[in-house]
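To close the section, here is one more complete example, presented without commentary so you can practise reading it yourself. The ligand is zinc ion.
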Amino acid sequence: MLEAIAIPILQDNYIWLIRQADHPNVIAVDPGTSSELQDYLTTHQLQLSKVLITHQHGDHINGLADLKQNWPNAEILVPALPFQGERLAGTACRGGEQFSVFSDVTLQVFHVPGHTLNHLIYLFTPKSGQPVLCCGDTLFSAGCGRLFEGSPEQMFSSLQLINQLPENTLLCPTHEYTLANLKFARVIEPDNIAVIEQQAKVEHLRQKQLPSLPVTLAAERTYNPFLRCEIKELQQRWQHESAIGLFTFLRNWKNNF
Ligand SMILES: [Zn+2]
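Output:
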């Protein structure tokens, strides 16, 4: 059984810890800081075997230097493509790589340009049970990442790649933006019951300071407007004749929402 644990850091980031029951080795994704993760590992007597980096924004990598010192044998997976002329030290990935982890889990790397040009996402597929996708700043619950470097076309096809994964895939984005995203989704689809229900559910969780994540892809398809641009009624409502036209319109609007 694969487990995805959200460790809250900074304002609204999570470091995701992927582990398998009874396995002392764990994998961490996007360490924007190090102390919260280090405390968790110490308390639960776990060993850090790999660190995965989706992209090189500071809130995803600033804990790396400390972790390397504490865990010199941990393998670091990083984008092969440079970001602002810099390449991180580690195992360079371009997408298409495959690793075996926790003895019987497949870890696949995909290249999904959009938020940055070198953005990677990481899919864990166990022999049985739900796949887990660490999707960084590409897909958020009820939303998607800003286009800092890529084009709307690139982000749209990156989201389509995610949308083709098995529907029981657990999505683990790096930010807790869900409530704000649902407010936007409510404006886009005021009559969508799934948006209204998810809003009530997430408000309840956030009041108790619990994460709204992870979420399944099946659920996201019902309320995330950025995964619903193919729906003809939605295109008509906002006067766009294609999915990419609607996507571009929504992404621009969300920037100033
Ligand atoms: Zn980012």
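Once you have examined the tokens, check your reading against these statements. The mean pLDDT is 97. The radius of gyration is 18 Å.
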